[in-house]
């Protein structure tokens, strides 16, 4: 990327040559006709060289702006991906919370099962003792009528204890499966958190690289803007010198947007930056319009109205000018929704209007 110092070094021979020729031209009494012709040829060569350098610089700036758009698109995609990952992480955290609740619930079930197993063991022990007691009673008192009945009760109780023990045993495998599933889910959650951390580091590095590229593009754009606002010493072919400006009348009938695009194309073909005219001295500008004798009664210039900032020049975006002190024609501006672009009356009082967006007018172009 060409820096400001490289540009100065690259242009210094041509600029020095032009200055030398201009100094030589000021002393016309001592310069012969042949010397003047040779000096003119060298000036033309220098101008062609400068024109080529301006075209190269314009191409480099366009390429940087294109790269910037690509990085901005990547930044948007990375931001969307990061938001998606955040949503996934939030969902995982919600799932983890639900799993924690299930763990608490399963731990409660385990405690219940342990209590039931302990109760079963106690009942089995009681059953064994009662059976021994019944056997003893049966041996000692065969005539007791209640022994058979007591034995049936003991058998029923023993069957109940057996059924309860089988139910507990049947629930244990299902409980083990649930615990294994919970362990798997916790492992997946841990892996996802690790992957999310790595991705956040990668996104941070990419954003840092994008920030560096954005700073480089902004530096080039700032340098370009500073160069474009420098006053041109000589105007390209087709442009007229008006104060410090280089202006060109375009008689083609166009809308404001079409006129602005046309002015930009004219500037590129001339090796500079084209724009609808932005007058620095309003009176000098109006006097120049008077001398043009345009076929169009109104001419587009580079002013437009923003709903928030008000009236401002296209080449100085973000710098509104006071509309109340502007040389408007009587009853202007209309400030309607379809009249947001500036034009100037090319005859009579040479004052400004906010012309309709659909109007087809000529234009005044400027090159920087």
Automatic annotation (TrEMBL):
Transmembrane segments: none annotated. Gene3D superfamilies: Mannose-Binding Protein A, subunit A (3.10.100.10). Residues 1-28 form the signal peptide. Keywords: Signal. InterPro entries: C-type_lectin-like, C-type_lectin-like/link_sf, C-type_lectin/snaclec_domain, CTDL_fold. The keyword Cytoplasm does not apply. This is C-type lectin domain-containing protein. It comes from Meganyctiphanes norvegica. The lineage of its organism: Eukaryota, Metazoa, Ecdysozoa, Arthropoda, Crustacea.
